[in-house]
Amino acid sequence: MSRSTAIAYPLTVYYDATCRLCSAEMGAMKARDAAARLVLVDCSPPDFEAGPAPRGALMTAIHVVDAAGRVQVGVPAIRACREAVGLPNGGALLDLPLVAPLADRAYAALARNRQRLPGWFVTLLAGPVAKASRTCADGQCRL
User: Fold this and answer.
1) For the chain, what percent of residues have pLDDT higher than 90?
2) Which helix (H) or strand (E) holds 132?
3) Which of 32, 87, 94, 136 could link 82 by a cystine bridge, Cβ 3.0 to 4.6 Å?
């Protein structure tokens, strides 16, 4: 989707629910989704076969498919999710010629290492929602 193309809602968001950061971010987005514009899909099960790309690609970067079938991956997908729930998407900043490639590289590095991030760093990035995603009782963790 280009910036000039209107997003067709709902957005189907393919994300790794085994990742604390991913779960915290998607939980925060869903909590703000008063217009029900996001449909969250956990692509982490080993037998997952649905989606716009093979499971390996879905586990490498967040993927979003809008109602018209247009796919966004990585930073553009996050921007689309943020826009859907009324959060600033950083569009003007992220579109700057020097910033856009840096944002893409930073996202790729973060996504590649997301399972190794220490809890304090996840909390720093995701805020208080990250703490709630680690609350467990009786062997059951809730998001």
Assistant:
1) 44
2) helix 128-132
3) 87
Task: Tally DSSP H helices, then E strands, for the chain.
Answer: 7, 6
- Cβ pair 85, 27 in contact under 8 A: no
At residue 14, the 3 state secondary structure works out as strand
Residue type, 130: A
The whole-angstrom separation of Cα 29 and Cα 87 is 9
In this model, does residue 134 exceed pLDDT 60?
no
pLDDT tens, position by position, 103-132 = 888 888 888 888 888 888 887 877 654 444
Mean of pLDDT values over 131-141? 44
- Round the average pLDDT of the chain to a whole number and report it: 83
Contact of 27 with 135, CB cutoff 8 Å? no
Q: Which among 109, 97, 107, 133 is positioned nearest to 21, based on CA atoms?
A: 133
Q: How many residues in total does the chain contain?
A: 143
> Before 10, cis peptide (omega within 30)?
yes
3-state secondary structure of 59: helix
Domain boundaries, the chain: 11-141
